[in-house]
Design a protein that fits this description.
single chain, alpha/beta, five-stranded mixed β-sheet, 7 helices, 32% helix, binds 2-phosphoglycolic acid
């Protein structure tokens, strides 16, 4: 039977994902493991530079990241959008305004991720290109902590829209309408090009592509 065949897929899957994928990937592991009970998983969650380090050391079977590393021999496959948005407390004076300028944002205290974060790099790149300097009030190494700091009124920040999906009904935070935003990005599955992908890794790769496709169809227009 099909179930017996699936039982034959045995082994360990080593995954390393960037912090923005930490809601999405674990949630999908439940159904995956039910489908393939013979597969055990080790999942690492770290920032962009942590993923690049693990890739260089060849520690995992598959990596999920948003910014492809240069100078590394890799294969990759985009599978889902990962836009960056500007977040503010819901009662912020700019909430509800249209087409806010970067200049206006630069007058607000800002919360930025830690060096090595891909989110931080993308934000800095945009502001550098436009010649605008941010007023960084606080640096924080966690998307969750940043959301709490925004809600607490410490400042504004830029995060992946996926970080607010778990509480899209949460009235404490709001997405601001700012020029140049959202910053459009994708999640990619990345693997070392010179290495034959294991049966287990290939199985997961196909599972995730399929799951992402279903999400795109379910959320058309809302994500
Ligand atoms: P980060 O990952 O945790 O490095 O900011 C997010 C990203 O690069 O999309």
């Amino acid at each position: 039977t099909v179930a017996d065949l699936k039982g034959l897929k045995q082994g360990r899957l080593r995954l390393a994902v960037i912090t923005t994928a930490k809601y999405f990937v674990p949630r999908l592991l439940g159904p995956f493991c039910q489908l393939y009970p013979g597969i055990d998983i080790a999942l690492q969650v770290t920032n962009h530079s942590g993923i690049v380090d693990r890739l260089k050391e060849n520690l995992d079977d598959l990596y999920i990241m948003s910014q492809l590393p240069e100078h590394l021999d890799i294969g990759f496959q985009p599978f889902l959008e990962n836009p960056l948005v500007v977040l503010a407390p819901a009662n912020h004076p700019l909430a509800g305004e249209k087409n806010i300028s970067l200049q206006q944002l630069s007058e607000e205290p800002f919360i930025l991720r830690e060096p090595g974060s891909g989110t931080r790099t993308a934000v800095q790149k945009l502001f550098d290109e436009q010649g605008i300097k941010l007023k960084v009030k606080l640096e924080l190494g966690s998307n969750e902590a940043i959301k709490q700091a925004i809600a607490g009124g410490l400042g504004l920040s830029v995060l992946s829209r996926h970080t607010i999906i778990p509480e899209s009904a949460n009235p404490e935070l709001t997405v601001l309408d700012v020029e140049y935003f959202p910053i459009e990005r994708n999640w990619y599955m990345v693997y070392p090009a010179g290495k034959q992908m294991s049966v287990v890794a290939r199985t997961y790769f196909e599972y995730l592509l399929n799951a992402a496709q279903q999400i795109v169809e379910q959320t058309k227009g809302t994500l």
